[in-house]
Amino acid sequence: MTDVRIVRWSPARMRARLDDVIGVYKAAFLDEHEDDPVRAARDRATHARRHFDRGDLRAVVALTPDDQVVGMTYGLPGKVGQWWHDVVAAALPPDDAVRWLADCMEVVELHVLPGYQGRRIGRDLLQELLRDVPQRTAALSALELPGSRARRLYASEGFVPLLSHFRFPGSYTEYAVLGKDLSGPAVRTSSAQTTTGQPAQVP
């Protein structure tokens, strides 16, 4: 991965490069999983703009020497009143909701261009995103495809299933909701069983 560097970006930088960031998301995910990826990308850009306006955004990108964005991830602290947080909290047993979501960094997106996958870029992005975060846990949702490259990555990084075959309101797509204990070794929840870089700088 000598030709790619992992860099933390500020919210302002993410806003300035929104088209590039969404372009990675479209090529890596929407083109494969959406019937209308162009429309889905426009919708996602609208959501991303709101996320990138938050001062507590944490973002990391993978850049080539010519400044092309080939991978990206970002996260936000979960809060009561936010859609993803509240939907997942309502679906979990109350004790698990408190344990996993009360002090949580939500990994909103993690994508790598298809031509750059399989080179541990995704792993480096995820590790940098979660490096030294103050939150006690991290959580995310991923397609319910246990053998996929993404699911293997998350499992190897210590994420465990919190919810399986979960459908978010208004969607027929099945997701797994995964969590990681950032204070120590991965642990099991009361309701689910586990399945099988260097510090970057903010420009």
TrEMBL record:
* Alphabetized GO MF terms: acyltransferase activity, transferring groups other than amino-acyl groups
Keywords from UniProt, A to Z, are: Transferase
Matching entries from InterPro entries are given as: Acyl_CoA_acyltransferase, GNAT_dom
Membrane-spanning ranges: none
List, alphabetically, the SUPFAM superfamilies matched: Acyl-CoA N-acyltransferases (Nat)
Q: Where is the N-acetyltransferase domain?
A: 4-183
What is this protein's name?
Acetyltransferase (GNAT) family protein
User: What species does this protein belong to?
Assistant: Parafrankia irregularis
